[in-house]
Amino acid sequence: MPTPLISAVVLSFNSARYIEKCVRSLAQAGGAAGGIEILVVENGSRDASPDILRGLERELGDTLRCFYLPQNTGTTVSRNLALRQARGEYVVILDSDAVASEAVLRGLVSALEEERDCGLVVPGLTYPDGRFQLSTDVFPTVTRKLQRFVALRSMEGSTTLADARRGDVDYAISAFWLFRRSLLDDVGLLDERIFYSPEDVDFCLRIWLAGYRIVYVPQLVAIHDAQEVSRSLKRWRFMLRHAGGLAYYFAKHGYAFGLGRLRRRIAAARATRAGTGAGLTAAATSRSAS
């Protein structure tokens, strides 16, 4: 199989309702956008997800590679397994309850290439009925996390994508990311000491601390059915894991209530990278020429 332009990484966990639509959307969009490999990690599902994926493997051939794990390893160990196998110039991380389109993939690649110091780009997300989804935010503090827990739906209901503007964001949920594979050389893989959330916040913060930016492009819209367990009050086990992950994240990065010190660290990292004239585009170009 020729080297693909894009490697798409998808997790499947009890996702029988969504996984086929997700994989087919990637196969169609990625093929039209210049070539894709789809890497699905089947994370110990107890529904029909493995059978659906085996059928898709037979149909899609080399375009789809699946890794079948006997139990749920969370979102970091599993994604890292696929990231280590990725061969594309660009990497897409997509939730199994999201769908891709050629326009969004092409648009994200273009946005990434437009700005030399951009490390990660994300589209606007909506629910299937078109409602705005709050998929980006400022870095979490204890206060902000409590606010999101109590008032997320009202926060989303007070905003539309028409209100959103393209620009830098602190972090984006990992429902739909696009970045160059070479970013992993600077930032590393997902932190496997976090089982489930906030591995996405941690990865985004490390992007900023490496001197790069994260850009939100709400004019590019993708649908995300948002079935992630953190949004379900019934999933107490995962909520407890999330609380543990947050405690680890705050200890790791040395803050919990205020962002002032963190902002200064990011500004220093950005200044250092600007001073060296480094950039992912330049680095990628150099590698391609060698």
SSE arrangement:
Layout: E1 6-12, H1 19-33, E2 36-43, H2 49-60, E3 64-69, H3 77-85, E4 90-94, H4 102-114, E5 118-126, E6 136-137, H5 142-157, E7 167-168, E8 171-172, E9 176-180, H6 183-187, H7 199-209, E10 213-223, H8 236-253, H9 260-276, H10 280-289
Parallel strand pairs: 1-2, 1-4, 2-3, 5-10
Antiparallel strand pairs: 4-9, 5-9, 6-8, 7-10
3D structure, described in words:
The chain has 290 residues and is an alpha/beta fold. The chain has one domain: Alpha-Beta Complex (Spore Coat Polysaccharide Biosynthesis Protein SpsA, Chain A), CATH 3.90.550. Helix content is 43%, strand content 20%. It has helices at 19-33, 49-60, 77-85, 102-114, 142-157, 183-187, 199-209, 236-253, 260-276, 280-289, and strands at 6-12, 36-43, 64-69, 90-94, 118-126, 136-137, 167-168, 171-172, 176-180, 213-223. The strands form two sheets. The chain has an eight-stranded mixed beta sheet with strand order 3-2-1-4-9-5-10-7, with helices on both faces. Strands 6-8 form a two-stranded antiparallel sheet. α1 packs across α4. The longest helix is centred in the last third of the chain and has 18 residues, at 236-253. Residues 228-234 and 280-290 have low confidence and may be disordered.
